Amino acid sequence: MYIIVGGGGDVGYYLARTLLKRGHEVLLLEKTSARVQILAEELGQSVIKGDACEARTMQEAGAQRADVVIAVTGEDDDNLVICQMAKKRFNVARTIARLNDPKHEELFQKLGIDVTVSPTKAILSLIESELPGPHFIPLMTLKKAGIEIVAMNIPPMSQVAGKKLSEIHLPRKSTLALIMRGTEPIFPNADTVLLENDEVYALLNSEGEEELSKIFGTA
């Protein structure tokens, strides 16, 4: 099966690596040169520099013969463009899009995207009531991917309180998916400022758990 993955962040990297190990033909598209260089050290010719939102790039990637196109960039607009172009211009049979904001799910479905995956929605579905107890709570382990979903309360006087996410050096193998500020859900981006008592939900592997706990002051 030939699979094109748009977006070379951590999600795209782990997805491409896993699919390659399972014997699929995979091409990972990433538009940032520095990131392509890092990815190529492990994935080799299975990663190329290019913007998956551009028709020319997709044509050069052989989208017309792709069985599946998966869009996992950090921007929902880009993921929608990638999947729509794959369906309408290159007649790709199956498209899968990462949703960073769950409120876009209905729009994606109406526009013909076959499958949407929302890490935020998956975490929200686990939150049925306020989580008491310690600052650092493992919620669920995705054993096949080696990933945990954890909840952290930002304690008073934490070094990250008052800082933007772009100013915090998070472990490479971690993603902040959701912040609960009281009863308000916040879908974080680089400009989001963390506050004391924020409840943060993150995806990470076992290697990043201890490091993330130290950074947030929850150890």
TrEMBL record:
Family annotation (SUPFAM superfamilies): NAD(P)-binding Rossmann-fold domains, TrkA C-terminal domain-like
Domain RCK N-terminal residue range list: 1-119
Domain RCK C-terminal residues, every copy: 137-218
Key word Transport present: yes
Native organism: Ktedonospora formicarum
Record InterPro entries: K_uptake_TrkA, NAD(P)-bd_dom_sf, RCK_C, RCK_C_sf, RCK_N, Trk_Ktr_HKT_K-transport
The protein's name: Trk system potassium uptake protein TrkA
Entry GO CC: plasma membrane
Signal sequence region: none
Domain of life of the native organism: Bacteria
Protein keywords: Ion transport, NAD, Potassium, Potassium transport, Transport
One GO molecular-function entry: potassium ion transmembrane transporter activity
